[in-house]
Amino acid sequence: MALVEKHSLTDAPEFRVSEAMPGDFLALLKPRVMSLVVFTAFVGLATAPGAIDPVIALIAILAIAVGAGASGALNMWYDADIDAVMSRTAKRPIPAGRVTPDQALAFGIVLSVLAVMTLGLLVDPLAGALLAFTIFFYAVVYTMWLKRSTPQNIVIGGAAGAFPPMIGWAAVTGSVSLESLVLFLIIFLWTPPHFWALALFKSQDYASVGIPMMPNVAGEASTKRQIFGYSLLVAAIVVAPWLIGMTSAVYGVVAIALGAAFIWYAWKVLRMPEADRSMGPAKALFAYSLVYLFAIFAVLLGDVAVGRLMGL
Amino acid sequence: MKPIETVELTEAQKKARKRRNLAIALALVAMVVIFYVATLTKLGPEILVRPM
Prior knowledge:
The complex is a heterodimer of chains A (312) and B (52).
Chain A: H1 2-6, H2 22-28, H3 31-47, H4 54-78, H5 80-83, H6 101-123, H7 125-146, H8 153-173, H9 178-201, H10 203-208, H11 214-217, H12 220-237, H13 240-243, H14 249-270, H15 280-309
Chain B: H1 11-43
């Protein structure tokens, strides 16, 4: 009471009543990233051997989606300072002033706990533990530690994005196996060329906020070589589901073709002249890489589904 | 005696608060439904089996 009598509430500079709409909180969940997470987690869940009740499967996917969204909110809470400077991220809810950092932090933590608890209790304890580790890895290991300290940030941090199919697999089987490890590796090895293609044509943004992305640290020439190297690795690993007997040869052939196209796009980036500031090939690789990952997982899902229908 | 100073919300703030409250209510109802359906799915009729 004494405080209220001495000071006017509206005088306090930090005093602010929120005008955040539910849509602003939804934006904190990074819905576009979430769509890839949901899809890859679903493929992991659907291709795993064994039966799962459709209702429980739906709850598993929902929990994984919310967990991924929560880690996105925690990422936006921590990165609000650099998001405000970069053109790509300046309109996010926190730098735009629609959501306060405290609101985002609380939102992220509450959703993380709910998602992990729901997955662990209702679906499978290992899946819940993997989701908890994924959120920790993305929010703490990647966002707070690696992102601002090493050009290998997205290489190691890519593991966070690679876990969802493994979580989906664990939701059905309660275990981690060679197949789920292969699904993990596909996304893990796909992340560096995907992100470095973006970093090439957004290098000014990253440089302006001091994020040590590969083009800013090792130079464009080295980044292009590394993109090409990782493209060879990802094109090789996507064939693995066929080689280990998870799919039929149909998937294998499609994976080889899609991988060859990936290498071709990466080759165009490698041959891109330093003087080319429009970075057409890098933008093309970035766009193709998104289609590629969706396509690989879609074909994998279709192949396994057809195989089951035909009783193979 | 001076009246206690309170915060007068603007129309935009009131509208935002109402929308947020509605979203929280919907999320809570959704959670109740999810746990109810999951309990039925996982336990089924066994939910009535309660050894003393």
